[in-house]
Amino acid sequence: MDFRILDASAFYAGVPFGSASDCYTTSLVYEEIKHIKKNEDALGTLLETNRLKIMDPDKESTNTAIASAKETGDFPQLSKQDISIIALCINLQGEIISDDFAITNVAKNIGLKISPIMTNTFQDVGKWVHYCPGCHTNHTSGKECPMCGTPLKRKLLKGESPSIPVNK
Fold first, then answer.
1. pTM of the predicted model over 0.70
2. What three-state secondary structure class fits 155?
């Protein structure tokens, strides 16, 4: 069975409030968004009717999510909440609902289902590399080029997938 796993942007866009589908999120995301529609207790209603389930991923899925994010180069851009959403998707084999590019890039690179909320589908996924606009060299990480001292920039190497398969 497919499960919809919501990140914070899905709540801000109102996805669970206008849907009859059951949804999952993690306790980290819930803590971040629990103020939404607090006066109407909309989240409380979703929880009471069991349309929103709060579940945390297991350690193995979390470790896989972290390793995958590091492999694609997205790890520095992802919060603990973002990692927990990717890990829960690995855990449940569900579908992430998110507009976050870093989440999308990691998820697509490891074969997870992901759907955007308000943006077009992200076509380009790959691996991030740090490059020096001064001496035109590529680096795996850092803020400054070790060769010439120029501040490094990031670019996406499209079509470059990490070697961590999750869904087979």
1. yes
2. strand
Residue type present at position 146: P
The strand order across the sheet containing 138-139 reads 138-139, 126-131, 153-158
Cβ atoms of residues 47 and 25 within 8 Å: no
| Domain extent at residue 142 | 126-158
Residue 148 contacts residue 135 (beta carbons within 8 Å): yes
- Judge whether 155 and 129 are in contact, CB under 8 Å: yes
Instruction: Work out how many domains the chain is built from and give that number.
Output: 2
Residue-wise pLDDT tens for the chain (168 aa)?
467 999 998 888 888 877 777 899 999 999 998 887 676 678 888 888 888 999 999 999 999 999 999 988 889 889 999 999 999 999 998 899 998 888 998 998 899 998 888 766 555 666 777 778 888 787 767 778 888 888 888 777 766 554 433 332
Domain contains 147: yes
Q: Classify residue 167: in a domain, yes or no.
A: no
In a domain, 24, yes or no: yes
